Amino acid sequence: MEQLHQPGDIITERYRILDTLGQGGVGITYAAKDLKTGQNVALKVLSLRRMEDWKKIELFEREARILAQLKHPAIPRYFDYFQVDTTDDRSFYIAQQLAPGKSLAVLIERGWHPDEAQVKQLAIRVLKIIIYLHKLTPPVIHRDIKPQNIILNREGRVFLVDFGAVQDTYHYTVTGGSTIVGTYGYMAPEQYRGQAVLSTDLYGLGSTLLFLLTRQSPADLPQRQLKIDFRPHVRISSEFADWLEKMLEPVTDDRFSSASEALAVLQGKQALIKSSPKPKLQKPQDSPIQLTQKDNLLVVEIPPVGLRSKLSQVLALVNLVWNGLLALTIWMVLELSLFLKSSNLIPLGICVLIGLWLLTRFLYGTLSRTRVEIKEQEFQLQKWLLGSCYQTVKGNTGDINQVNLKTIQSPISNNTLRLCVFKLKHKDIIFGTLLTPLEKKWIMKEMGNFVKKIHGFK
């Protein structure tokens, strides 16, 4: 990104640019002197004319709004938010306290080799900042914890900076925001799907600590069963390795439940509860579904269900009763001239339409064959009936936000139905409605794990 200011430039007759501190995902940050107070400040700027993504304005304004609410000694104080208009541009500025010290990335680059005790102390201090953020109402998720955003000074004080990726959970809940923000190597797998939870910050901190211990980006370390295989590359106690491994669990539910729990375990005030390996969900016995997985390809072949599930049997019974009574009624009308009144014809017509709808749903549900193919970049779902393909859905695998079972109310009973669903950004793709409950659970688990692997570990 082209520099907006040079040393010596004066902004709004108050801030003199001293140097460039760095460039983040949202804006460029300069060291500047406040000519009014004499203080050195960090001045972050975003140019409207040079902006490629309009989403950055929202992120920038959210950063300013949230920074104004934060009051913590380890978070640089917020001073001001303003904009400057020129004939050909509009620039937005955030002024805040300049954190004294150097980033962890710079310190490592200059030869710093922290030992386990130093890394632990650093982790404790950052965890206390995260606890503060997560206990706010609504909780604040930083989403970009990395070596460049943690400042350490000579006295050992730690500062967390650059809230350009920050997210308050109220915003996420209301808008369902799915912007992918963060830094490759330090992003938790869920961030690749545009999602973030409280433990997302724990993953970022764990990745940062791993960088301090290995002097490598976590993205460059090998993986085993979707996890970073860091143990052969570090010299730390087994207890600390176990703690770090839990911070870096790819599945959110397997990480510490909160930053407070992570801190308590690290300080020895609470025992570490290891994630017990979940039993692998096996293919249901006698199921004709074929699931094939190799490298970056997953194929699921679902043959016609027929009458092998209870749901298809219930639907068959409903069809038999409804259309049987309907056929008897029509026979009585035609042969015996019963109910042959004009006022009865409309209700009878409605009953015929309902019968046809039930029969169509039954035939398509029990006789259709479905094929789902998921690759690293794209997916395809096809449905076939009697050798003819009647539905094809294609899309980018990266657009799949969730793969899960969706519960709805049954239209023909008081019971609920569970549907197999691909949740995309703008629509849901539903299939396998009449499969057995175990089949649905099995294939959705396999598909979900595969999509998580594709999203989070490319």
Automatic annotation (TrEMBL):
Enzyme class: transferase
Catalysed transformations (reactions): L-seryl-[protein] + ATP = O-phospho-L-seryl-[protein] + ADP + H(+); L-threonyl-[protein] + ATP = O-phospho-L-threonyl-[protein] + ADP + H(+)
Domain Protein kinase: 15-273
InterPro entries: Kinase-like_dom_sf (IPR011009), Prot_kinase_dom (IPR000719), Ser/Thr_kinase_AS (IPR008271)
Residue spans crossing the bilayer: 314-334, 346-364
Pfam family, any one: Pkinase
UniProt-listed Enzyme Commission number(s): 2.7.11.1
CDD domains xref list: STKc_PknB_like
Keywords associated with the record: ATP-binding, Kinase, Membrane, Nucleotide-binding, Serine/threonine-protein kinase, Transferase, Transmembrane, Transmembrane helix
PROSITE patterns to which the protein is assigned, alphabetical: PROTEIN_KINASE_DOM (PS50011), PROTEIN_KINASE_ST (PS00108)
GO molecular function annotation: ATP binding; protein serine/threonine kinase activity
Record's protein name: non-specific serine/threonine protein kinase
Annotated source species: Coleofasciculus chthonoplastes PCC 7420
Lineage: Bacteria, Bacillati, Cyanobacteriota, Cyanophyceae, Coleofasciculales
